Amino acid sequence: MSKSLQAIRGMNDILPEQTPLWRYFESTVAGLLDTYGYRQIRTPIVEFTELFKRSIGEVTDIVEKEMYTFTDRNGDSLTLRPEGTAACVRAVLEHGISGGGQVQKLWYIGQMFRHERPQKGRYRQFHQIGLEVFNLDGPDIDAELIVLTWRLWKLLGIRDAVKLELNSLGTSEARARYRDALVEFLSARLDQLDEDSQRRLKTNPLRILDTKDANTQAVLVDAPKLEDYLDEESRVHFEGLKARLDAAGIPFVINTKLVRGLDYYSKTVFEWVTDKLGSQGTVCAGGRYDGLVEQMGGKPTPGVGFAMGIERLILLLETLGQIPESINRQVDVYLCAFGEQAELAGLALAERLRDRLPNLRLQVNAGGGSFKSQFKKADKSAALFALILGDDELAQQVVGFKPLRGQGEQQNIAWDALAEHLEASLAQA
Ligand code: ATP
Ligand code: MG
Question: Is any ligand 1 atom within 6 A of the Cβ of residue 66?
Answer without folding.
Answer: no
